[in-house]
Amino acid sequence: MPIFQKTYTCEETYPAQPPQDHRHHTHEIGRHHRIERRLTRMWSLPPGVGTEDGHTHFCTLVEIQRHTDVFDTRQKDGVLRQETADYLSTATLSAAHAAHAVRAHWGIENRLHYVRDVTLGEDASRIRHNPGIFALLRSFALNLLRFNGISNISLGLYDNALNFDRLLAYQGL
To answer: Do the domain assignments include residue 23?
Structure first.
């Protein structure tokens, strides 16, 4: 068996399915000194295509090609970066819905993990015994603040530290 095997593209693996209109979606975003173009392509998978026992339920292959022009302030020029990401889905989606789902997934990172790491100091925590209990308490505090309409968690923690009665007036306690 050779060390390097040929990698197959979607076109080579599933050539009998020409992409239709709803299987392509192009989206362009320009912000933060970069212009990003995303091409989303979809392929329907035949039933039972997975090689593992738990992989036979996938029905759609999603390929997202990202072409990003990043402006380099030192060189005063744009640098082109190209990436391709493949996803498997159990749902049959249009390319536009799949592109939106992939972009929206980063909302979890921005609204949950970043807040837990930075504002609640989870990464800096030195708790070694039963850290899951304190992670549960952090999640409870975050959910309580969000349930009561606090969008800026850092400011909400500061306001509650100044006035404990405000915390006790929250709904959901």
So the answer is: yes
